[in-house]
Amino acid sequence: MTANAQFPAPFSFGTPAEVVFGMGTVRAAGQRVAALGVRRALFLVDQGVLAGGLTTPVEDSLRAAGVEWETFDGVTGEPTDRSVQAALDRADSLRPDGIVAMGGGSALDTAKAVALVGANGGTVLEYLNRERTAERAGVPVVAIPTTSGTGAEVTPISVIIDVDRRFKGGISGPQLMPRLAVCDPELTLGLPPSVTANSGIDALTHCLECYANTAFHPYAKLLALEGVRVIGRHLRRAVVHGGDPAARWGMMWGANLGGLCIARAGTGDVHAFAGPVSGMFGVPHGRANAILLPHVMAFSLPGAIEPYADVAAALGEPIAGLSRVAAAERAVDAVRRLIADAGGPLRLADCGVQEGDLAALARDGFGRGNRAINPRVATEEDVAAIYRAAL
After folding, report:
1. d(Cα 273, Cα 269) in Å, to the nearest integer?
2. Cα distances (Å, whole numbers) of residue 145 to 10, 46, 101
3. pLDDT digits 0-9 by tens, 259-268
4. Could you tell me the pTM of the whole model?
5. Burial label, 92 (beta-carbon count in 10 A; 0-12, 13-18, 19+)
6. What are 99's strand-pairing partners?
7. pLDDT score at 3
8. In Å, how far from its chain's centre is CA 42?
9. Is residue 240 within 8 Å of residue 325, measured between CB atoms?
10. What is the pLDDT of residue 182?
């Protein structure tokens, strides 16, 4: 190596203080919460998790560990500034020394935002609009996912909708990283096919975009490609046979890998363009990703030949003897088939989007920061064309 050799940029890799993964691990959550020094917790859940009885083992373990708690079940399907403020108001009255969040990405993102704003003051919108930055971490957040999609249990990110602006954006920073993630695939055994599909495709999108984008992070790229392989192997089975423990284990593992990789290397145009669809039309994040992913892949292919060829192999495509370009094209086809097999709407028009809405979507999508690391940089006209192709 010569003295003037160029080296890649330095990188770091951070995770929660602990990730506990495996069947039945939720039944010991209380002991781990207590080990963090938590004696009074705010228990954040959505009403579906509460009605489904999924909170019982957590409550039993908290009780056994001597941890007191109050439950807040006002988490909405997509966190909004108003729903997060309601949770903040509850936290202000309780003064907890820890937050336990159980549910999909909405519950986990709400908990992270509540802890952050509670410790640093201000309003959620001030952080969402970059008017205020966090200087210190809040009380410990324990994240218990009940879906296999967002990977929010291992990301320093909280995604929130500004209701008045119909804008979906994010707060990010190391202070948002949960202290503990408890990933129990048993919690996902009762998920309906639509939720399994949407959350699973979200996880796939995380892994695929992270692997193909231009950000440098060797750990993240390794995790991303393994996530593509695991999700490609288990998603169809999890949708059709939701009670299969092996499929559910694989999907939760793939989602966890997706969260770990995007926490350090980011995503790309799919997430840039899905945000406006969810913010303006209330489309679930995973479904917005599912609709846009094949179109963004087709556009990005000239700049992602090598990573897409690897993706094709990870998805089990027969690429022996093919050129790298042909192999990359197989990846786009394989992802399109996987999304179709998982079920659900495949067009924006099926979700209430009309031709007259495309200009507003394109303006919002073009302004998103994710685009800077997409493997092919889109012009404003390109963005509009991708939305139109997905209509």
Report:
1. 6
2. 31, 12, 8
3. 999 999 999 9
4. 0.93
5. exposed
6. 42, 141
7. 43
8. 23
9. no
10. 96
Which amino acid belongs to residue 74?
G
Which of left, alpha, beta for 66 (phi over 0: left; psi -120 to 50: alpha)? left
- Buried-state track 282-321, b at ≥16 Cβ within 10 A, e below 16: ebbbbbbbbbbbbbbbbbbbebbbebbbbbbbbbebebee
The C-alpha atoms of residue 184 and residue 245 are separated, in whole angstroms, by 11
Helix 218-240 to helix 245-265 angle, to the nearest 10 degrees?
A: 150
Task: List the structure tokens of 53.
Answer: 């009885």
- Picking from 226, 236, 144, 220, the residue whose alpha carbon sits closest to that of residue 185 is 144
How far are the Cα atoms of 60, 158, 224, 256, 284 from residue 105, in angstroms, in the given order? 23, 9, 19, 12, 11
CB 52 within 8 A of CB 122: no
DSSP, collapsed to helix, strand or coil, labels residue 144 as: strand
Which tokens go with 302? 């000239």
> Cα(286)–Cα(274) distance, rounded to whole angstroms?
9
Domains of the chain: residue spans and CATH: 18-188 (3.40.50.1970), 193-390 (1.20.1090.10)
Q: What is the signed CA dihedral for 262, 268, 273, 276, rounded to 10 degrees?
A: 40
Q: What is the chain's mean pLDDT, rounded?
A: 93
Q: How far, CA to CA in Å, does 251 sit from each of 142, 143, 254, 354?
A: 21, 17, 5, 33
The residue written with tokens 């209330």 in the block is 282
Residue 17 CA to residue 40 CA, distance in Å, equals 20
Contact 281, 390 (CB under 8 A): no
